[in-house]
Amino acid sequence: MRKVIIAPSILSANFATLKYDLKMIEDSEAKWVHIDVMDGHFVTNITVGPLVVKSLRNVTKLLFDVHLMITNPERYWREFQKVGADLITFHAEVLTDKKKLIDDIKSSGIKVGISINPKTSISDIEYLIPYIDLVLVMTVNPGFGGQSFIKDMVCKIKDLRKIIDKNSYNCFIEVDGGINSRTASVCINAGADVLVSGSYIFSAENPRLAIKSLLM
Ligand code: DX5
Ligand code: ZN
Q1: Which of 21, 147, 182, 211 for mutating ligand 1's site (highest number of atoms within 8 Å of CB)?
Q2: 200: left (phi over 0), alpha (psi -120 to 50) or beta
């Protein structure tokens, strides 16, 4: 049985009290925190930068899963690495020379992932899977929390699982967007290793129980 990891997305948390939300995550069954970085260019929304990550790093040891939804990850990734990102994921759609960025991030000593939008196919990144730690399958169009899971992405997760298992690649499959207790089990059955979830967890009366429900 694969061990599934939950990565709560703080995009849906209360930014005035993030410290307490991190504490809640520490006391839950989740061990990662998903941090959505948006630049108002690759996506229409703007969120947080390295300064916020730096402040959060001072108050928790949770794994920082930094999802860069930005046009120039090659220009900004190092800022996030310096302030404590453990894993940096960039979007396949923004770069031609993805291998160079993968090598740069890995040689800094942290993990690297590639994310694909719903319209991007696996074949665009398949040749890179041997070199990366994680593929992030977007199950909504990136930019905002609270959207509905795109069911067609289940086949993508299954296809990726087959490729990774067949070649014994050491690469996680992470899913992001519209994850709740129902879609979580669909993704786990399809082969996902890491589930990002924002609005489902942070709008729940008991976020810790909501996290638990994703694993059932
Ligand atoms: C969306 C972000 C997600 C977002 C998920 O572009 O990448 O991480 O926080 O939010 P929910 O779980 O509400 O769909
Ligand atoms: Zn995300």
Answers
A1: 147
A2: alpha
Report which of 1, 24, 3, 21 is spatially closest to residue 11, judged by C-alpha positions.
21
Which structural domains are found in the chain, ordered by start? 5-213 (3.20.20.70)
Query: pTM for this one?
Result: 0.98
Q: What is the pLDDT of residues 181-211, one digit of tens each?
A: 999 999 999 999 999 999 999 999 999 999 9
Query: What sign does the CA torsion over 94, 98, 100, 105 have?
Result: positive
Longest dimension (CA), the chain: 45
Strand partners, 39: 46
The residue type found at 172 is F
Residue of 48, 43, 45, 42 lying closest to 66 (CA atoms): 48
Q: Are 169 and 198 in contact (CB under 8 A)?
A: no
Note if 36 is an active site residue.
yes
Q: Using a CB cutoff of 5 Å, list residues around ligand 2, an ion.
A: 36, 67, 176
Q: Is 176 known to be catalytic? A: yes
Return the SS3 of 51: helix
Closest CA to 138 of 123, 164, 120, 125: 120
SS3 label, residue 178: coil
